[in-house]
Amino acid sequence: MVRVVGLALGLAVAAAAIVGMQLPLLQRPSSARQLLRPVLDPAPATALAWPSVGSAALYIPSLGVLEGYRDAVAPIASLTKMMTAYVALAKLPLGLGQSGPCHTVTSYDVANYEQLEALGESTVPVVEGEQLCEIDLLEGVLVHSAGNYAVMLANMVAGSNGAFVADMNSEAKALGLAGTSYVDVTGLSPQSESTALDQVRLSALLMESPLVRSIVIQSSVTLPDVGSVNSFTPYVGTDNVIGVKSGRTQQAGGCDALAMDYQQGWDTRIVYVVVLGQQGGDLLGPAGEAALALANSAVANRLHYTLQKDQAFGEISYGARHVALGLAHSYELWWWPEQGALRVSMRVRRYTGTIHHDEVVGQLIVQGAVRHTYPLVALGQLAPLSLLQRIR
After folding, report:
1. C-alpha angle with apex 26: 24 to 31, nearest 5 degrees?
2. Architecture of the domain defined by 55-300
3. Which is the catalytic residue, given 30, 55, 78, 209?
4. Whether residue 245 lies in the annotated active site
5. Cα distance between the two ends of the chain
6. For residue 15, is pLDDT > 60?
7. Span 5-33, mean pLDDT?
């Protein structure tokens, strides 16, 4: 028995010695290194076409850009009606193809139309007894900037303009629009005030509604008992302008909230611009020109880098043998000059076995104002070294 135990112990010691001698020959995990430079430096920025008078703001959601210029509280004229529409849709949601509740025009509505018409506010004629549904009122407000339609919409939603204005101010506070306050639903009063930054944020929020987008892109709409009325939003339907609202008064000058779509690679994106306090001509023309110029300069100001399919961004190795790492598809990177450089890094798994062609082995990470991750794949096959290869 002692002899058997001794033999077993001897075999165990011998086996341990053999394993210990072979440990240096066991396969070491793969290693990886990055070939793409770790920083993508921005090119010099081109100048943005900020207006020479008044204030302005720029918002590009896809790039994380929100910038203001001479931002200050000022009268906003009929841009007020963006909040009128926003609150109305929050209280009475309406989908595409729906009409919503209807309002019967009263003698008060007719008198209000005549009063606003005399004050130079944009209006649409109304007749006592006619029916105007929510969709009609929204189209009249957002396309033709009809002040009397805004008053009827507010009364239908809240029972009175006073109650509706209180809802507008509550909504502005809830949205964090700290520079915004309203005293009417039309913007005819110079005391309905805001900032360009607040209004550009509100423009984007309003355009989240598919119904609103379908309305404000129209250069004209057909209203009951009136027929076709035109849009006062400059350039809408041309130059990729898809909305949203304009306004003008003597105190506010020309104001324009513009949404313009543009191509970013294969994707369609939107840039939002607001200009306030523009001067000259009919006020709307200069406001539209200033807004469009700023939007176009913003699109031209983007920086671009293409991550090419099959480009070697790194490599994974077993000893002196390696295979390149790349992407299965090409990707477009777009960013804003003031956001600085993009930082590039890799996260690659460690292997001890065969790595196959097109196998996802990790991620390429591009960090800027927005973080992007892309799957890294092996651009070839790599097998670990055999025992004989390791002992040569």
Report:
1. 95
2. 3-Layer(aba) Sandwich (3.40)
3. 78
4. no
5. 44
6. no
7. 54
Which H helix or E strand runs over 318? strand 314-318
Give the closest residue to 173 by CA, choosing from 182, 163, 164.
Answer: 182
pLDDT tens track for 289-320: 999 999 999 999 988 888 899 889 899 999 88
CA 364 to mean position of chain CA atoms: 24
Pick the more confident residue, 368 or 324: 324
Q: Is there a catalytic annotation at residue 228?
A: no
Confidence band (pLDDT; 50, 70, 90) for 387? low
SS3 201: helix
- Residue among 80, 264, 314, 112 nearest 184 (CA): 80
Given CA atoms 246, 112, 183, 216 in this order, what sign does their dihedral have? negative
Per-residue pLDDT of 337-358, as tens digits, reads 888 888 899 999 999 899 999 9
- Which stretch of 59-63, 142-146, 258-262 has the lowest confidence by average pLDDT? 59-63
Structural domain boundaries in the chain: 24-42+307-391, 55-300
What is the C-alpha separation between 104 and 163, in angstroms, rounded? 20
pLDDT tens, 80-134? 999 999 999 999 999 999 999 999 999 999 999 999 999 999 999 999 999 999 9
Candidates 145, 192, 194, 231; catalytic one: 145
Per-residue H/E/C for 63-94: HCEEEEECCCCEECHHHHHHHHHHHHHHHCCC
**pLDDT tens for each residue of 124-148:** 999 999 999 999 999 999 999 999 9
Q: Does domain 24-42+307-391 sit in CATH 2.60.410.10?
A: yes
Q: Which member of 30, 81, 194, 246 is catalytic?
A: 81
Known active-site residue 173: no
Q: What is the DSSP letter of 181?
A: B
Which residues make Cβ contacts (< 8 Å) with residue 51, sequence separation at least 6? 69, 275, 278, 290, 293, 294
